């Protein structure tokens, strides 16, 4: 009997497989298709010839932990102890899984804000805990009235995603104030803050839980080296959490993967000496603006994109189909793969919106929008 009877192949895998079968342009799955920085590839090649291929310490390569501590202080003004408050993970997904498994007990409740990434709910179910999924407002802002009404003594965790996938929305000061009020009311509440797109924001800069004095001692912050450096296949992420929480997370982490890829950690450690991560937002803002400009002559209505490398578009002016039907027709008849939003919702909410990934080469974006103009 299945422990996860309702879990099927993810929509991301489905659409990417269909894109291959129909030779479609794939703007669905969230990964860049442009070359990785030559400096990083050269560092990986250099270290591959050295004798660094055995296990690293369970928590991570100490020089890399120290670099992350320095980056966190520089970016957010937070001093973290690299020995006790940072953990290198096998991608952000493993960090999320380990955190929930370590900190959530059976029958406790975890709030998820929909539309949400599909890796949040499964570890909750495997804990025999209860996911409480709450829809965001139509503009993808948190509905604090509903969130507050859902909270109770059994609520152990709230998972937030900022910048948000799929909408690209970033949190405001008021959102953080409302969350801090909840922690005052429920002292056992923990925050799992998924900030994997933290360095990909545009006009308004990212606000991190790392900057919130009232939150950081009750929070686990999830980051992604794979997202930041366009190396999603390396599957390298990291967590920042206070020592008392990190002790418990490490207990799970050591039996999931024990330690993370040694070659990748050595290369990334050196790369952080030469890369300017502050340039990342500008790099992706150019791609966002390029794609939005190309899309102006289509029939899609583009929603605001404040961060991440995703663009939400409404197709209300084009069709009244549900989003699954529309995206499949868009793929099979016009050769462009996108992602419907309804799989991000527990109630399969129909917003008549779809998600494009614009982290692609310009020629690919041009070809895709040329096809979309035929709608």
Total strands: the figure is 13
Biggest sheet features: 7 strands, mixed
Output the radius of gyration.
20 Å
- Percent helix range: 25-40%
Spans where pLDDT lies below 50 across 5 or more residues: none
Describe what this molecule looks like in 3D.
This protein has 375 residues and is of the alpha/beta class. It is built from 13 helices and 13 strands. The strands form three sheets. Strands 2-8-7-6-5-3-4 form a seven-stranded mixed sheet, sandwiched between helices. Strands 9-10-13-12 form a four-stranded antiparallel sheet. Helix 2 packs across helix 10 and helix 11 packs parallel to helix 13. The N and C termini lie far apart (45 Å).
């Amino acid at each position: 009997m299945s422990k996860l009877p309702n879990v099927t192949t993810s929509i991301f895998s489905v659409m990417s497989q269909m894109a291959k079968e129909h030779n479609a342009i794939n703007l669905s799955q969230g990964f860049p298709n442009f070359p990785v920085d030559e400096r990083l590839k050269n560092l990986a090649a250099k270290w591959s010839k050295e004798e660094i291929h055995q296990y690293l310490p369970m928590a991570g390569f100490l020089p890399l932990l120290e670099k992350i501590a320095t980056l966190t202080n520089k970016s957010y003004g937070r001093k973290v102890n690299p020995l006790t408050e940072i953990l290198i993970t096998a991608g952000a997904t493993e960090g999320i899984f380990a955190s929930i498994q370590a900190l959530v007990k059976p029958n406790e409740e975890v709030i998820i804000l929909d539309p949400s990434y599909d890796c949040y709910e499964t570890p909750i179910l495997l804990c025999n805990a209860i996911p409480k999924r709450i829809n965001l407002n139509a503009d993808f802002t948190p509905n604090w009235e509903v969130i507050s009404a859902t909270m109770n003594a059994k609520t152990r965790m709230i998972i937030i995603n900022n910048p948000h996938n799929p909408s690209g929305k970033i949190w405001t000061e008021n959102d953080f104030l409302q969350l801090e009020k909840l922690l005052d009311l429920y002292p056992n509440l923990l925050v799992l803050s998924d900030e994997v797109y933290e360095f990909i924001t545009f006009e308004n800069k990212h606000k991190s839980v790392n900057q919130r004095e009232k939150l950081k001692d009750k929070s686990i912050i999830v980051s992604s080296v794979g997202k930041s450096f366009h190396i999603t296949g390396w599957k390298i992420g990291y967590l920042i959490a206070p020592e008392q929480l990190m002790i418990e997370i490490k207990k799970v982490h050591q039996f999931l993967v024990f330690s993370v890829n040694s070659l990748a950690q050595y290369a990334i450690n050196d790369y952080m000496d030469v890369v300017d991560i502050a340039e990342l937002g500008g790099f992706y803002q150019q791609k966002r603006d390029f794609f939005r400009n190309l899309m102006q002559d289509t029939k899609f209505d583009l929603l605001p994109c404040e961060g991440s490398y995703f663009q939400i578009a409404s197709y209300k002016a084009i069709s009244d189909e549900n989003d699954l039907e529309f995206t499949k027709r868009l793929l099979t008849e016009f050769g462009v793969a996108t992602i419907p939003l309804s799989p991000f919702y527990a109630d399969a909410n129909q917003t008549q919106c779809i998600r494009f990934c614009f982290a692609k080469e310009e020629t690919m974006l041009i070809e895709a929008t040329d096809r979309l103009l035929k709608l």
